[in-house]
Amino acid sequence: MQRYGHFIGGSFVDPAEGEWFETKNPYTGEAWAEIARGTKSDIEKAVAAAEAGFEEWSALTPSARGKALYRLAEHIEADAARLAEIEVRDNGKLYAEMFSQTKYLAEWYRYYGGLADKVEGAVIPTDKGGIFNFTRYEPIGVVGMITPWNSPLLLLAWKLAAALAAGNTAVIKPSEFTSASTLEFMTLFEKAGFPAGVVNTVTGFGVEAGAPLVEHPRVSKIAFTGSDIGGQKVYETAAKQIKHVSLELGGKSPNVVFEDADIDAAVMGAISGIFAATGQTCIAGSRLLLQRSIHDRFVGRLLEVAREAKIGDPMLAETNVGPVTTPAQYRKVLDYIEIARAEGAKCVLGGKPVEDQPGGQFVEPTVFTGVSNEMRIAQEEVFGPVLAVIPFEDEADAVRIANAVDFGLAAGVWTKDMGRALRMSERLRAGTVWVNTYRAISYTSPFGGYKRSGIGRESGLEAIKEYLQVKSVWIATETSVANPFIIR
């Protein structure tokens, strides 16, 4: 099997404790690589390397940093197919989606490469005479980045591209289930001419490697993507040292279909929202809100289309639904299906494990009707191919149901009424609202959540300021001495 060490200071190194763990292919169930099992000692080395790298990286002109990010983007595009294959081997998602992601993530590095030398302070016309006041933006320092297993490189790009453009350096702790693609990605930084230590990766488990990264006193910010429970723990730990944080957490997103919607388009949007990526996305439209007048007709059409989904090898172009990525997540999805049944929801599609596939981690696309918004299946993030269908009466009822959860990451609205589209986009408590589409993302548009779905934003112009701190500079232009006992 292939063996992957940590990437620290521009080189691959063995773990300090000499421990390794296996990573498995979710489709076959077979181990295919050994990953370094990091500890506090490895984190200490990586932070020291990032501090040394910060001195050189932050001293470069913003234009020079931008050019380095452009070079990196070229290497990403050239290596996109190989990186996608590694991600499929690690997380079991469809190659078609992973390849689309690995090609597209180059655009984040181009976008922020272009933005690097366009972050500008301001001259402030204060009310004080004889004073010149201006602001400047400065990098935060070493940023710890903790990434999940569902889209490792894309979700890393949302953090890393902006952080590097701003002049920071990074220590990355990827999920223990999907570390290989991040480690392979590290080789591109040397090819792109980045100074050693600017980007570092320590692999391992949350308690052994992730916690020491969050706790490290010389890590100035933590950028985390994961569950709301994990994000809460990160937030609590970071607060003890008053660290900067950005948290992109879970969701229980409503996909709201009104009676005037294009039914065929909305059906495809509902399927994309929950069965794409085997439902393992934070933006999954796991609550399908249907206006009662179209409920039965819509469900019938939805089931017709969903039954045609092909389950199987994620490397094949004809496959629509791959395996659940981890054994624990597989068991969790099946547990929630039983919880839904016990609470009285009606399973009208799926609801069982798939027995004729290797690896033992496949779940049928599952649809529940007769769901009330108070059920656990409607309130808690399942992170799997399980859809809860909830009827509503009118626009006010839809808003009430949609917002009555602890999460607020995304929402979908399907209607031909532009006034309604605008009203719903205003009233839904979510960081992203899609109208007549779903799962659309771009490096140009901010992404993040309300409520327990997180704080801060990734992508777009807003994201780079998540990795900068503003300084106000006051310069006296007159030589007169003010009364030292009175605030100026």
From TrEMBL:
Domain Aldehyde dehydrogenase, first and last residues per copy: 13-473
Xref: Pfam families: Aldedh
Active site: E248
Keyword Oxidoreductase: yes
Enzyme type, top EC level: oxidoreductase
EC number: 1.2.1.3
Keywords of the record: Oxidoreductase
Gene Ontology MF terms in the entry: aldehyde dehydrogenase (NAD+) activity
Keyword Oxidoreductase recorded: yes
InterPro entries xrefs: Ald_DH/histidinol_DH (IPR016161), Ald_DH_C (IPR016163), Ald_DH_CS_CYS (IPR016160), Ald_DH_CS_GLU (IPR029510), Ald_DH_N (IPR016162), Aldehyde_DH_dom (IPR015590)
Family per similarity comment: Belongs to the aldehyde dehydrogenase family.
The protein, known as: Aldehyde dehydrogenase (NAD+)
Provenance organism: Rhodopseudomonas julia
Lineage: Bacteria, Pseudomonadati, Pseudomonadota, Alphaproteobacteria, Hyphomicrobiales
